[in-house]
Structure formats: structure tokens, C-alpha cells
Amino acid sequence: MQSTRIVLAARPDGMPQPSDFRTETVTLDPPRPGWTLLETRYLSLDPYMRGRMSDAPSYAPPVQIGRTMVGATVSRVVASVPGDDGTEALKPGDIVLGYGGWQTHSVERTDLLRLLDPAAAPVTTALGVLGMPGFTAYAGLSVIGRPQPGETVVVAAATGPVGSAVGQIARIKGARAVGIAGGPAKVALLRDYFGFDAAVDHRAPDFAEQLAAATGDGIDVYFENVGGAVFDAVLPRLNSFARIPLCGLIADYNATGLPAGPDRLGLLMSTVLRKSLTVRGFIQSEFAADQYPAFLDDTTRWLRDSRLEYLEDIVEGLDQAIEAFRGLLVGKNLGKLIVQVAD
What CA–CA distance (Å, rounded) separates 266 from 185? Predict the structure, then answer.
């Protein structure tokens, strides 16, 4: 079986360029006992992938030069071999969630695959609202944010798969949801489709004033996905004892040096001290053992009851992955960004 794959050809300096990637075709070894040959149907594109392109210290090892770009995938089983340890083979045609990365075919360990039921929900949701982004929102908000009825929850990058889920879950828990997004179309989407109580445009010249008007009683929970100028506007609006689940800092992912201007670390730390803030960075896998079963139960029920909406931005063809990913880093996508690799 041959696989077309996109590999990391060079470590990006700033925004990833097409020349930082290379497309090649390789022949895969047949699956050995306990492994499964898969045909990729859908590939997830996520902001964390930018960090994996760098060799700077991080919570996960970098993608090595010449290796396939990482990513979650929904795939069809082509062939599967039972394991010597009793691992059962999957059936050809089964649809599974795996981690095949940016390629048309992969060979993966069977015990690390999750069998999907296409009759229960569209299989693409395993990459979004019922997958890692949805769980990131659920766990970060539930464990760190702990929103209470009547509190105000603000989330940045709010039309993305994490942010949109954060705001809707906050409302389910009785809190008030305020979303921050870029551009009038995304702001309207937050109000009209995702049902946020308020939405503000971080690209507007009066962004800080919009945020102040939308958070008249201050901010009790701020779910951080962006950083940069957005956080600068949020910081003075935080209430005493506010909680900040720190999920991402996409505004700085392509930075090649420290930002210009005065050192504001002292302001940040004095605010943390003076207002007794809780700032907690997290990776969603930290909470999987305790929270994942409840996440699947709750979100599946909320989807069925139309209390949780989602939006998918699907581009066709593996050859479109590089440009789609570049667009993701500047907010061009609407909802969960997915590449349809095969019909």
C-alpha cells in the first residue's frame, strides 16, 4: 500500500511557509500483529501543530525533520491483524479515530484506535465537538474555570471549536457567555448561531470599550486561547478571584522574539496578587482519566437536545492542508477546520 504524505521539511521562522513542507509518496509495510492499516478520510488541523514544528521545549516532542506532520484522523480500516496479546482485529470498513497525521494511509496500533459509530453522530465530530477540542473546552472550563450561575465567562477565539464549546457549556451551567472574535461576521455568528449573550470584535478600534460594555460586572472566568492584545484588554476587567484556564496563545505562535514595548510582567503579577487570580495552564490529556467519560455522556446528550451547536470548516484534498493550516493561524476558518482526504 502506498501513502501520500506531507512531511516537515524545515523548521518555520515565523509564519510557516509552503517551503517548510514536502509532499512525498512512500510504500507502507503491511500491518504486523496488533496493528491496523487505515485509509484516511478526514484530517484535523489544530493550532497546537505550530508548536510541534518547533524544537523549543514544550509539553510534547517536536516533529522531526523529514517525518509526517502529526494530526488526529478519522479513517477507514483496510486490514487489521489480531495481536499476540489477544488484541482483536478490526473489521475492514470500520471507521475509527486515530492519529495518522497528514497522509492518505497509515499503519497504527489497534489498541490506540477508537471505533466510531456513524449512526450515532457524524464521524467528523470525533475531530471537533466530540473530540479533543470539545474535551479541551469541557475539562478546562469544568476543572479550572468552575463557572457559577450568574457569573460572566469570557472566551477568546470564540468561533473556533474550543471557544464555541466553552461559551455554550458556560450557558448550560447558568453563566453568562461573552465571546471575542475577529470581524463582524464572526461576531454575528456567536450571537445568532452559538447563542452567546454578547460578542465583541477584537479587530475593532474600540475593542476595549466594547469589552467593557459587554462585561459591566467584570469577568469571573476568562478562557484564554489567544494572548497578546486581547489579554491586554481582558486583564483590567477581571474580578477578584477570577479563574483563567490557559489553553493557548495563538497570537504568539509565529513570534520570532519578545514583543516590543515596556515590560508588563510586573503589571500582570501585581494584578494576580491583588485580585487573587487563578491562572492555570493545562493540556487536555491531564484530565482524560477523570473527565473523559462524563464529557462524552454530557456532550452527546447536549448535542441530541440541541443545547450544543457546532460548526465545521471542511476543505477538500490533502494538497490543501498546508494553505488551510496557514489560514488557521490567522483566523480564516469558521469553526473546526478539517481536511477531507478521501470520499
Answer: 36
